Amino acid sequence: MVQLSDKDFEMLRDFIYNICGIYFSNSKKYFLESRLKRRMEAVAAQSYQEYYACLKTVNGSATELKRLLDEITTNETCFFRNVPQLNALEQLLLPEIVAHKGKLGFRKIRVWSAGSSSGEEAYTLAMVLLEKRTALLKDWIIEIVGTDINETVLALAKEGVYNEYAVRNTPDYYLRKYFRQEEGGRYILAPEVKKLVSFSHVNLYDDNKMLFMKSFDFIFCANVLIYFDLASKSKIVQHFYNNLQPYGYFFVGQSESLHGVNDQFRTVHFPGGFTYKK
Question: Pick from 95, 145, 93: which is nearest to 121 by CA?
């Protein structure tokens, strides 16, 4: 198959960027080329210009674009991935927000797992909050929303079936209580956990979609911003800011930072990590 020229690389890179804000620097050219070749073979496109035309056509372009986005987004995750964040949520931040909302008479907790991939983070949060239902969150409504641009992994999330690698960090207590282990190393998530989480296809770069993602007490967006350039990051983080409650908390990955991206958040430190608040 023909090699990806600089001109075609820039053409397809800019097309992807304008759709979803994901930016491929020149150092990522080989990665993008390998993913494009898979899709070109699937649709029998003989050149990058022909494949670009396929993406731009009215008929079938939405389906092919979805498949391309599935190819270029990586989905490495697991249950209980960031324990310091979970400890801070459970022991410090959740009691604070419950006390605040309790005074207002509003007994509902809303959590958003952005870039939720195959659901491990969203379901981890569901299990942690379920443990609070007998006391702190008794008679409270718990609503967790998982979103991703990759529809393939969203379908896996909705199934709630995982392998041993996905549950490798899960404490035994949660593993015994909320999973059913089957032969072949399959772990089936309990219905009461799945019931708390809804999943939907959301492009974080889409201004119209973001208008409907309102009033969250906690937003988790781990290892997603790394895909975007500064302009895209600023736009997406502003969406998060707008959709977070005034007293809410915004979490990013352990190696990520909002420094130079958005100055409307302030950093809140806790043992082993940090979060952001308006």
Answer: 145
pLDDT mean over 41-58: 89
Residues 108-145: pLDDT tens digits? 999 999 999 999 999 999 999 999 999 999 999 999 99
Per cent of the chain over pLDDT 70 is: 98
Measuring CA to CA, how many Å separate 2 from each of 24, 36, 37, 47, 50?
Answer: 20, 11, 9, 7, 12
Q: Which residues contact 266 (CB under 8 A, 6 or more apart)?
A: 276, 277, 278
Let me know: does 251 contact 219? Beta carbons within 8 Å: yes
**Tokens representing 59?**
């008929």
Q: What is the DSSP letter of 214?
A: -
Same domain, 48 and 97: no
More confidently predicted of 237 and 102: 237
Q: Secondary structure of the chain: what % helix, strand, coil (to 5)? A: 45, 20, 35
Helix (H, G, I), strand (E, B) or coil at 239: helix
CB–CB of 108/101 below 8 Å?
A: yes
List 199's β-bridge partners, or say none: 146
Q: Are residues 38 and 158 in the same domain?
A: no
Same domain, 58 and 165: no
What is the mean pLDDT of the segment spanning 92-109?
94
Total domains in the fold of the chain: 2
Helix (H, G, I), strand (E, B) or coil at 129: helix
Cβ-contact 150, 70 below 8 angstroms: yes
| Structural domain span for residue 198 | 83-277
What's the chain's average pLDDT? 94
Question: Scanning the structure block, which residue is given the tokens 């993406």?
Answer: 55
